[in-house]
C-alpha cells in the first residue's frame, strides 16, 4: 500500500485526561481528535489496546485480540442508564498527572459489575440482541479469552500453568465444567468486551469522519500468561508441562547492556506454517477492525529472532533463529491483500531484514534521537532518508526529546544545534521541524514532544520493572499556542494528509 505524506501524534489512550484516574474512550478522547483536526494532523498512533497484566504494559496483554476494559468510559455508561450519578461520585480525587493502576482497577471494576447487573435486568431486547450478535461475531477468540479471565479470577490470578492439571491442559470435561460453574463471570467479561468495542468503534468512526487515520500496533509476541498461550499451546515452544523451553528477548543494544529479556513464549513457526498461519491471519483481521494502519512491532523477528533458553537471568546467552520470512507475508497477502503495515525495524538490523521489508514495500522507522552520534552517514539523519519511511522524534520507548537532549554529551548537543540550525532552547520544535520537513511519507511525534516536556513525562523505560505507562497530560496543555504552532508547522511544509489508493504492482 502506498501512502501520501502525512503527519500525526503518538498518544496511547491511557494518557488522555479525565477524572477517573486513567484516559478513556469518552469525551476527552473525542476532544483529542478535535485537537488533531484543528492542527491539520491526519494520524493518531496508539500502543496495543489489549487488557494489560502485571507491569501494566500494553505489550504484555492477557489477549492479542481483546480490548482493555480500563479504557471503558464510565460517563457513557451513566448516560445509557447502566450507572447512576451517585455511582460516579469520587470519595477522593484521582491524580491528573499519572495512572495509579491499582486504584483505578479497584474503582472501575465494581462499577462494571454493577453496569453488567443492570444490563441483565433492564436492557431492551434490542440491546441484548446487539450484545448477543457481538458474542457470535467474535466467538473464535472471545470464548477462550473470557473463560481464561474467569479462570484467572477463580484461581486468584495465578498463572495458568499453576492451575489444576485438567483445566491447565484444557481437557474437554474440565472446559465444560468451568463454563457451567463460571458462566456469570464469563458473561461479565464478554460484556466488558462488548462495551469496549462499541465505544472504540464509535471513537474510530469519529476520527475517520474527520479524515484522521488510526495507527494501531501489533506486538510480534504474546504474553506467556495469556489466553493465547493457554488456548493455543501447540503453536509455541512448550515442554510437556506447558513451560516455555526458550523465550523472547533482544541482545545487548542501545537500551540495555545485558539485552532485554522479554520472557514471551516463542512461536513454533513450522507448526504455524502447516496451518497456513491461521492464528496470525485472525490476528490481522481483528487489528484491521481496530485501526486503519498497523505498526508491526519487532519486525526483524519475522526474519530472525533472539531465542534465550528458559531460566536465563539476562538475554545475553541467546542465539538468532530464523523466522518465517517472506513465506509468512506472502500467505498474509494472499489471504488478506496488501496490508497498510509500518515495519518497526529498529535495533540490530541486517541486510536480510531490510530486504524482507523492501520486498513487501513496508515503510520502516527513523528515529531522530538516534541520528546525531555517528556522523553524516547515520541512517537516521533526514538527508539520508528515502520516501518510504516513517520519521519519529522519538517513540514510546525513548526519553522525551527534551529529556534526551539534556542527557547527551556536549559534543552531540553541538552537532544537533549545528545540523538543525537551532538554539538549545528550541530543541523540541527543532526536531519536529526536521521530521515534518523531511521526505518521509509519515512524520509522527509523541505528544510529550509537542508539549516540550522533560524526562518526568517519559512513557516507558525499557528494562525498568515499574513506573512505566503512567503518564497523562492535562487538558489545559493543549492551548492556543500549541494549536497555532503545530498548525503553522504542518501548513508550512504542505503535508498532504490524504491517503492514496492502494497501488497494485
From TrEMBL:
Keywords: Carbohydrate metabolism, Glycosyltransferase, Transferase
Domain of life: Bacteria
Entry EC no(s): 2.4.1.25
Enzyme class: transferase
Protease found in the keyword field: no
MF GO annotations: 4-alpha-glucanotransferase activity
One of the GO biological process terms: carbohydrate metabolic process
Reaction(s) catalysed (UniProt annotation): Transfers a segment of a (1->4)-alpha-D-glucan to a new position in an acceptor, which may be glucose or a (1->4)-alpha-D-glucan
Family, as annotated: Belongs to the disproportionating enzyme family.
Protein's name according to its UniProt entry: 4-alpha-glucanotransferase
Species: Orenia metallireducens
Amino acid at each position: 500500500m502506498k501512502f501520501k505524506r502525512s503527519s500525526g501524534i503518538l498518544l496511547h489512550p491511557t494518557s488522555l485526561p479525565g477524572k477517573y484516574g486513567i484516559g478513556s474512550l469518552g469525551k476527552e478522547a473525542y476532544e483529542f481528535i478535535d485537537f488533531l483536526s484543528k492542527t491539520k494532523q491526519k494520524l493518531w498512533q496508539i500502543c496495543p489496546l489489549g487488557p494489560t497484566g502485571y507491569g501494566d504494559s500494553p505489550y504484555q496483554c492477557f489477549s492479542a485480540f481483546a480490548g482493555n476494559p480500563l479504557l471503558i468510559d464510565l460517563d457513557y455508561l451513566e448516560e445509557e442508564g447502566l450507572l447512576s450519578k451517585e455511582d460516579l461520585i469520587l470519595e477522593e480525587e484521582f491524580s491528573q498527572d499519572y495512572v495509579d493502576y491499582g486504584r483505578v482497577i479497584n474503582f472501575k471494576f465494581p462499577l462494571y459489575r454493577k453496569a453488567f447487573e443492570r444490563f441483565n435486568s433492564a436492557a431492551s431486547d434490542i440491546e441484548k440482541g446487539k450484545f448477543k450478535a457481538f458474542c457470535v461475531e467474535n466467538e473464535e477468540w472471545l470464548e477462550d479469552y473470557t473463560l481464561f479471565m474467569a479462570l484467572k479470577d477463580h484461581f486468584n490470578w495465578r498463572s495458568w500453568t499453576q492451575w489444576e492439571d485438567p483445566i491447565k491442559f484444557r481437557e474437554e470435561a474440565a472446559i465444560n465444567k468451568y463454563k457451567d460453574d463460571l458462566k456469570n463471570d464469563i458473561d461479565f467479561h464478554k460484556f466488558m468486551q462488548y462495551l469496549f468495542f462499541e465505544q472504540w468503534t464509535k471513537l474510530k468512526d469519529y476520527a475517520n469522519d474527520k479524515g484522521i487515520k488510526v495507527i494501531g500496533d501489533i506486538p510480534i509476541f504474546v504474553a506467556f500468561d495469556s489466553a493465547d498461550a493457554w488456548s493455543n499451546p501447540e503453536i509455541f515452544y512448550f515442554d510437556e508441562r506447558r513451560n516455555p523451553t526458550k523465550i523472547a528477548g533482544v541482545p545487548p543494544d542501545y537500551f540495555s547492556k545485558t539485552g532485554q529479556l522479554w520472557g514471551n513464549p516463542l512461536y513454533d513457526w513450522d507448526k504455524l506454517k502447516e496451518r497456513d498461519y491461521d492464528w496470525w491471519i485472525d490476528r490481522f483481521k481483528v487489528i484491521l477492525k481496530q485501526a486503519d494502519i498497523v505498526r508491526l512491532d519487532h519486525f526483524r523477528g519475522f526474519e530472525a529472532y533472539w531465542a534465550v533458553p528458559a531460566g536465563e537471568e539476562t538475554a545475553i546467552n541467546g542465539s538468532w533463529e530464523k523466522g518465517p520470512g517472506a513465506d509468512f507475508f506472502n500467505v498474509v497477502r494472499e489471504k488478506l491483500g496488501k496490508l497498510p503495515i509500518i515495519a518497526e525495524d529498529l535495533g540490530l538490523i541486517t541486510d536480510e531484514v531490510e530486504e524482507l521489508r523492501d520486498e513487501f514495500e513496508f515503510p520502516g522507522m527513523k528515529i531522530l534521537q538516534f541520528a546525531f552520534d555517528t556522523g553524516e552517514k547515520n541512517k537516521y539523519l533526514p538527508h539520508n532518508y528515502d520516501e518510504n519511511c516513517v520519521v519519529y522524534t522519538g517513540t514510546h520507548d525513548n526519553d522525551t526529546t527534551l529529556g534526551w537532549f539534556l542527557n547527551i554529551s556536549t559534543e552531540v548537543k553541538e552537532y544537533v544545534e549545528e545540523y538543525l540550525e537551532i538554539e538549545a532552547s528550541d530543541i523540541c520544535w527543532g526536531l519536529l521541524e526536521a521530521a515534518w520537513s523531511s521526505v518521509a511519507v509519515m512524520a509522527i511525534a509523541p505528544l510529550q514532544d509537542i508539549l516540550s516536556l522533560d524526562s518526568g513525562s517519559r512513557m516507558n523505560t525499557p528494562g525498568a520493572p515499574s513506573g512505566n505507562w503512567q503518564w497523562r497530560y492535562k487538558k489545559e496543555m493543549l492551548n492556543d499556542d500549541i494549536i497555532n504552532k503545530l498548525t503553522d508547522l504542518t501548513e508550512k511544509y504542505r503535508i498532504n494528509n490524504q491517503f492514496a489508493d492502494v497501488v497494485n504492482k
